Amino acid sequence: MFPLHKNDRDKLKRQQHACQSNAHVSAESMSLSFLSYLECSGCGENYNYAELNTFCPICQSPLLSRYDLESARQHIDRDAVTRRKKGMWRWLELLPVLNRENQIFLGEGDTPLLSLPHLEKELRLSNLYVKDESSNPTGSFKARGLAVAISKAKELGVDKVIIPTAGNAGGALAAYAARAGLRAHIYMPKDTPFANIEESRMAGADVTLVDGLISDAAGMAGEKARTEGWFDVSTFKEPYRVEGKKIMGYELAEAFDWQLPDVIIYPTGGGTGLVGMWKAFDELETLGWLENTKKPRMVSVQADGCAPVVKAFNEGASFCDFWINAHTIASGLRVPKSFADHLILQDIYDSQGTAIAVSDESILESQHQLAAMEGIFAAPEGAATLAALKELIQQGWVHPEENIVLFNTGSGLKYLDYPTQ
Amino acid sequence: MNNNILYIEDNPDNMRLVQRALESRGYRLLQAKNGLDGIHTAETEQVDLILLDINLPDIDGYEVARRLRSSHKRELNSIPIIAVTANALKGDAERALEAGCDVYMSKPINIRELWARVEAFVPTP
Asked: What is this structure's pTM?
């Protein structure tokens, strides 16, 4: 993987524009994606998407997919996308997989945006919603990112993939790798929820349980990847998981009639969803698809036993310190330091958002509340967003009439070996 | 300050990456490929900050940090030390801080973060 020189870059872009201008003509043609190049989020260097990329070799920051949005604007009918068959791949022009035959589809995407009438009344709010990601394959939002990452890996000729995970990403990787016919190896903390371990093994993945955290698992997976040639699909160490997650942002815009909610409250471990949605909002604006370009304030929610983003935000920092002795029942939030910490923080700052830590006790209480009042058995990470909302109301940070969206990132059914209230 | 950064690291790829990054900001990089050489360089050269890999071929980075903190050269007792590891073992961060390091960074080293961390101790020349 090498950076492109400017002349090559310009040539590549011209070729791609030409291809894409032809590609849009027929919905049945091979490549409909308007993917143009990969850009380093740190130093801005560009890379060729036709090669297998990880992260920037120059400054070691995550790579982001850039699309020819001007051409896309001319050739994609926003309302036609709405009429397509449901599922994440209906946004295929804005996803990085070039050939339809490489799309691995298990039913991901188009999760419901549910109103929360009883909680609205309880919390004296007017417009409270939850984007319920638990209906994704393997029961969590991780399906979105891994559907794209595995599809793209397959397209680029990868035959074995490896991942460190706090839980749900392992199950999702195993499922999509099985469907794609790729070998999968998963490193996860030994106290990861049992459901995550079993679903990964059931799908044929090799599972290594690690005496440590996801950061320890990441070290081991990275070492195996380097020495044995596995492709590492760790969060932000390849460019495409975030592309799957960004579709949550497109779906939200569509659900709000091409406007955006005022506040999005999102649980943050690796931060792919938060970064992905903010990227989606930028793309939507460039595409000219928004009726109102006012963007949401992004709220990053962490557990007080592992809150590196909250600490960095409160200090006005650009990067997170590694969180020592991370602990929380919300296993997906037990990430001592994200590889994309500077992107997460930048997006929170840019959105005039905030970051907030909540206790395990308040997570459990909110989990019970969501189930008892609204019939939603949320993952603890999802319940954490309700706990955070209650804090934000007390602080006067949200206004009662605002459109507020909580994110439930997975099903509570996958955490039955944890204590519940 | 002389803007001298000592990097104790046995991996030549990481050494080259950090050298490029820091020299582009005007720092001078002193290099040591193992722990004992690193301690020797720290004790004999004028150094303003130490980047310390933990997994070294002779003594590990924790031991290097402990020896630097108890060195006869008094400046080393308080010199900024940034631990840099692949965190392949449980508790690397905790152990690094307990051994006397000021900051912990995990590999892969994000260069923008490296600049920020170094500049917090040694302003850009």
From this structure: 0.91
